[in-house]
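PROTEIN FOLDING TASK:
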Amino acid sequence: MAYAGLNAERLTRAGAELADEVGFDQVTVSELARRFDVKVASLYSHVKNSQDLRTRIALLALEELADRAAEALAGRSAKDALAALANVYRDYAREHPGRYAAAQLRLDPEAAAASAGVRHARMTRAILRGYDLTEPDQTHAVRLLGSVFHGYVSLEMGGGFSHSAPDTQETWSRILDALDALLRNWPER
């Protein structure tokens, strides 16, 4: 029996749920068609192909993350804002591992420019203004923060820290302290 009311948004949300269940790399139009008990061809009127579906899921994840980050950052500055943003990424990855992986998908330049990724960059730069960083140091710091946040989360999610003490939360807190200290004492060129 075919599901009535299928559209691109509904398929994207179902694809995001599928990503959280089985992993983003396993999301295909074929698998989604099985979930809805419809023929694959019936989904192609809503999504072009699996890459289009994956891009839509990535855009959804970026939007969800940006909304959470904006809420978490409201009224915060400096270290409080830094920790709030970092915790949004970490918490989202724990709650939605497939969507988090989708948010890392490399988008074509046009999709990237129109995505919530732009909001993420603006929020990160707003935090860095609290540390009196200007260009090009701001760009270097954005890259550093992204590398640390996403690197730590990826290693933690992959079990890379599960075999030794101390607890990963303690390490996370120390990393945020170290980043705050580094940003307050950014090296002069």
